[in-house]
Amino acid sequence: MRESISPVSRALTLEQIATLLGLIPDGVYRRYFAALVYTGMRAGEATALRVGDVDFGRGVIRVSRSLSPGVRGELIEQSPKSCKSRDVPLIDALRPYAEAAARGKRGSDLLFDGPDGGRLTNHNARRAVNWEALREAIGRPDLRIHDLRHTFATILFDAGATAPDVQATLGHSSLQVTERYSRAREGVALRAGAALNDALKRADESADASRAKTSAKSEAKSVHPEPEMAQRRTWRTLNGTLMAQPHERPRGMTL
Fold first, then answer.
1. How many whole angstroms from its chain centre is CA 163?
2. Is 172 known to be catalytic?
3. Which residues, in sequence order, are bridge partners of residue 189?
4. Pairing of strands 66-69, 54-55
């Protein structure tokens, strides 16, 4: 559970995917691992896939069953984990592997089977490709088979797929589970903080501009008073001066 808290961190990069598949010899095992990383299917779902489940014309793969080990180690066929069938894309990167796997088979035959025609599971596939050595070669000694599913979900989001589309493709029971694979959640705090900082900065700049404009108007009024106001002040000053001056009698005038 601790490791699954951040499934994005478990995902491979596109370069690591290419390196991983390139290190696996061409054949049934490379096809199997290519299907896991390019469809997001669970290992048991890829194991149970039949040729008839692939619609090469439409470019989709129908996932309707899964194989899981029973109490005695036998493989039991059952419905997928979500208990619902779903379609996954047959992308161009996977098509050559799927076509090679289906060549010469009937619709009811397993698409991915072992070299001897038996069941191909993640356990015998890991042994066949020396999984430990592969993990070391790509710099991911902690890589698990299930992380290939995490990888597919992450690159789907990176490619611009919507959360509902990713949910439907992976067969998740809730959108909340799906959204954990989106890198958009990783930088949400930084983006929100940056947006708020920008908004506050614009508000401060607007307030500064408004204060500067008001101050400029006040200074202009003090230097160049408005004509009507200046006239009123002049008459008040003049009248006050006249009222304050004593009236002198003309010389020679008597009362």
1. 9
2. yes
3. none
4. unpaired
Model confidence pLDDT, tens digit, residues 179-237: 665 554 555 455 566 777 888 888 888 888 788 777 777 766 665 555 555 555 544 55
* pLDDT digits 0-9 by tens, 218-229: 766 665 555 555
Residue of 31, 50, 86, 149 with catalytic role: 149
16, 23, 58, 52: which is closest to 37 by C-alpha?
16
Catalytic residue among 10, 30, 31, 42: 42
Instruction: Categorize the per-residue pLDDT at 83 as very low, low, confident or very high, splitting at 50, 70 and 90.
Output: low
For residue 105, what are its two tokens? Answer: 């088979």
The residue annotated as part of the active site, out of 81, 95, 105, 135, is 81
Q: In whole angstroms, what is the distance from residue 33 CA to residue 199 CA?
A: 48
Specify whether 81 is catalytic: yes
Q: Give yes or no for residue 8 having a pLDDT over 80.
A: no
Among the listed residues 39, 83, 88, the one whose alpha carbon sits nearest the alpha carbon of residue 65: 83
Own/partner long-range contacts of 52-58 (Cβ < 8 Å, ≥24 apart): 52/107, 52/108, 53/111, 54/90, 54/98, 54/102, 54/111, 55/90, 56/90, 56/95, 56/98, 56/99, 56/102
71, 200 Cβ separation under 8 angstroms: no
Report the C-alpha gap between 168 and 178 in whole angstroms: 9
Whole-angstrom CA distances from 48 to 90, 104, 122 are: 17, 18, 12
- Active-site residue (options: 65, 105, 140, 146): 146
pTM over 0.70: no
